[in-house]
Design brief:
The complex is a heterodimer of chains A (about 160) and B (about 650). Chain A has seven helices and four strands. Chain A is of the alpha+beta class and about 160 residues long.
Chain lengths: ~160, ~650
Amino acid sequence: MRPEKIDWGRLASIIEKHRDEKSRLIPLLQDIQETFGYIPPKSIESVAEAMNLFPSQVQGVVSFYAGFSLKPKGKYVLRCCRGTACHVKGSRSILRVVEKELGINEGDTSPDYQFTLETVACLGACFLAPTMMVNRDYFGKLSPTKVTSILSEYRKDKEEQ
Amino acid sequence: MMEGTVEERLEALRETALGDFPGTDAGDETIIYVGTATCGRSSGSLEVVSAFEDSVKMLGIKARIIEVGCHGHCYAEPMAIVSKPGWPPIMYGYVTPNRVQSLMKRFFNDEDPALEWALGAMEENDLIPTVYETPRWAMEQRRLLKNCGAIDPENINHYIALGGYAGLANALNMEPSEIIEEMKKAGLRGLGGAGFVTGRKWYICRKVPQFPKYVICNADEGDPGAFMDRTILESDPHSVIEGMIIAGRAIGAESGYIYVRKEYPRAVSIMGKAVSQARELGLLGEDILGSRTCFDIKINQGAGAFVCGEETALMTSIEGKRGMPKPRPPYPANKGLWGNPTVINNVKTLASVSKILVHGSEEFASVGTENCRGTAVFALAGKIQNAGLVEVAFGTMLREVIFDIGGGTPPLIKTSQVAGEPSKPVKKKFKAVQIGGPSGGCLPDSLLDIPISFDTIMETGAIMGSGGMVVLDEDNCIVETSRYFLEFTQNESCGKCTFCRIGTKHMLNILTNITRGTGCMEDLDLLEELAATIKQGSLCNLGKTSPNPILTTLKYFREEYEAHILEARCPSLECKDLIAYYILPEKCQRACDACVGSCPTEAIYTRKDRLKAIDQEKCVKCACCIDACPAQYDAVIKISPICDLPESEPRDDTPSEEDKT
């Protein structure tokens, strides 16, 4: 998912969809995040205008929540769980293995926009600790070797394309 | 359009529902239930479902496969129940697609239910012991989790067939004040952690003469280590919806919000489906069951901020702002969402409501302690054998939950390299249980003999919180665990209050120093002082309770802190800066090379006497060599403090035989 040019028409239709809702700003931003994979910084002004807010207010909300990103994300978003149960079962070394395998640090996206590495407070799958999520799929009871094989599956996917 | 009284309309719905629910009497049809909540899915239950489908087709039997929620026995996922005519329903655990094939063949071709894979029968019978005889089930009291795993959460008819929405029907025939009275009599307390009496909260909100009012379901389960709300949303969504409608009727609200974490995509989609199904049947919307009561629900997804689990922050987040807490009072019951009176309850509290109205407050209050009525749901995780959800009556001993139901620490089996040699399971020693997430505390073994209630746990310095219990064993360092929690709260602090924002940062720095062996004894006093200031100077409970993990560990595990500071020793051998890896020469075998290949940094070399040793300069302390060393040698150990490390032996510089030739 290399960042393409922003489809302004699509953005306008998303904004239109949420215009009449009462608690609309966060659902609107979530919709943009979902559609584009990130909140294009340039879209903030149009959002603010439509919602009758200052751009700084919108920017404030975007930067407050971990669920919004101003940078485009990779095709696969890896979320390593850093919950308590995962922590006591060694999630720190799992995170380190993932960082080493992908060659990126937590919070970064690989230059080819294939992978983004994030950490998350808890995935709520503590019985599978240590866990991680790749997009919407859960992987549990991880070990360094298991991580390596999971990642190579996703890499293979890239080569096939 | 339906006609008649509330009861008549619900009866009509139930009749249709019963036709859609296999229940106990399914005729000659086999019913297969597979748990496909998040826990099942992440263990591969969707593959199990398709394996069942294939087997049913191949064997040509008449069967229906139903995807249900989670039983709470997450350790045994994927789980399936096979209910074959002429047999009691049998529950199977650790199901795999391969196992499904042979199980189905044996059961249907040879009338052999493959009992070695079964956890037990779900009904009394003469052939197979039931699951209810195992300690895990026998000690539990399932009320909130009763429907979890028994019904298809995506089919409202299953819920109605099992008596769902009967509580609502009763509520619609009661005066709002009677509903509140019934809640008060039941003694239901908020199960989100604070334990405020629900009936009182509703009463206060009802008294405020301002409209509109709102009901909010707090499903922003952010505490790491807690997943019971997720399970209820995914497995029994209508119990929450029903509770919200009843709350709405009690306080006079006509709209409600469910605020769910975005990290729970499955819960969001199931709730969405449940709300629209309820709307279709006239259980939500205008004129519910012909009673003129109106109520509708909207689902809001969180955007990834832990602090939004705090009620005032949650409401500002719904309003579309930065989710920062506000001072209380005014409490939400007086001035909540958009400045209107709002009742905000946790998922479990709302799920309890309809049960009280169906079975009566006396039945509800019949279990528990004097001040805490009913049951509590805990999520067991960490170093525990039977991880999953447990529902016990208040007053059950903490030790029973962890050791009898949870099974204690799990047996570790080290794989042996020599074929035929039995592997030896070892149980690590229990060290502490962490209750209540980042706001809670660590309790040692000596404190496990307390009956569970909001007050007894509070006395120890921990809190009930959302009910997450993470078990630590002897390999987990207490100082490191405290540091971890502070790192968490520090990260999640919204930044509004100086003491929380900067105080936690200072505490984190001090703890990090201690785990690196660079702390001093004065640090411990400073930690206590900072903790007291943060408690006083923070607005919301995220800040107020953030020092709890440190205070409890300082109280119960002070000697571990002192070992780090005074001896540069980590008693649990976890803090990387204070340990070194060492290969015991007396145990190492010359012929074995297992560790050499496992080391990612090539730190292991061969000594003059052909034994292996570790180059401490190169070692990154990843523990790969410990895992690689065969169980019968068990030669790699961790040493702390590092100064105890024996002097290293020189390398073998003589070229090997191959090199000579």
